[in-house]
Give the backbone structure.
Amino acid sequence: MKNIIEFDTLPSTNLYLKENYHQLADRTVVVANHQTAGRGRLSRRWEDSDDLLFSILLKDNLPHNLANISLLVAASLYKTLNEILDNVTIKWPNDILVKGKKLAGILLESVVIGEKVDCIIIGVGINVNTVKLSEELKQKATSIYLQINRKINKKELLEKFLKEFRRDYQFYSENKSDYLQICRDHSYVIGKEVIVTINNQPKKALVLDILENGNILLLINEKKVELNSGEITLQELY
Ligand code: BTN
């Protein structure tokens, strides 16, 4: 990644790229220490403590299948974090978990003009050095520090991730990437019973597989159902 722009505070690194992508080069990376209006998937806020918060701009030679980009990023994150931590898994389509608790999240956004995708923005938040989480968050989130009891250098972590991602993205463009296999082999959800919410209707489902097109294959009421990430949310069944 050629250009890395650093800020102490921004409303959101994704928003910054959305507003400025015209004058920025392909693969520009924006990093902020703090966000005042961090965006999460499904418009949820992304809580910010001592995290690594960044976004990558993709403008040139955009891939046709955007749905798979989130899984590609998840695979690069997996490889990066697996070097530091044990028990890292990928929760389709865009979360990285450690022992079932969320460690990182991906938010993909795009700017579409007419029929054409003008740019893709990949937003990533990794809980890195957060020492204390609220009682509520403690149940469902964790940080690298809370797992290994050691603070790590966020800049080095970003560089490691960008190196993985750069290589994975290149392989992806050449149809040679192993990202789907990584998402399957280290999936948190395959083989599990979950609750899926489809059109606001919660349903019990068994996760069978992640398909080549990035969709998930479920067994619902003994029928195989293929769904994309925009159509459902997955919740674990306890
Ligand atoms: C999610 O888990 O819901 C996705 C979280 C993505 C958060 C990151 S933090 C950096 C980038 N800027 C944002 O506003 N959001 C993403």
